Amino acid sequence: MKKGVVVVSCPKGKGKWANSGELAPIMPGIENVIQAYLVARDEILRKIGLNPIDVEPLSPFISKGGKVGYWQLAMWEKLKIEIERASGVSFRWKDFRPTFAQKAKDLGVPIEAVSKSLRHTSTRTTELYYARIRSENAFSLMRQAWEASAVKFQSGKIEN
Length: 160
Hints:
By secondary structure, the chain is mainly α. The chain has six helices and four strands. The longest helix is centred in the last third of the chain and has 20 residues, at 135-154. The termini are far apart. The mean pLDDT is 87.
């Protein structure tokens, strides 16, 4: 938290195109949410007699019997159903990556940075499946470039 990053110990593509131990930045605006989560996590783990530092999973699964470990796929699905029921919003876990990527691109993050943050080896995958410049943003950039050129022309100077 002090450095503003998290260590990604099990990245998507581990052993193929991503390495464990890579750092990922904590985006502005969510530091307080993460800090509150970590405090709540510590309290829950201490209540069941565990030292939070000794529990590896950031988001540990705690069984009814108090056993702590990683979430299994079936439990992620149960959690998803509970979140959908409570929020009234249907979603798919896999939608979070493209949503993150497109939001970053819409905020003006260069495609190379978006691609790197998704751990892609090239921007091709990012552009094909995750994020592309939206038409309105592309047209706005084109307009700005042409307007800048028009100002130069109107001043009586023709520049290349």
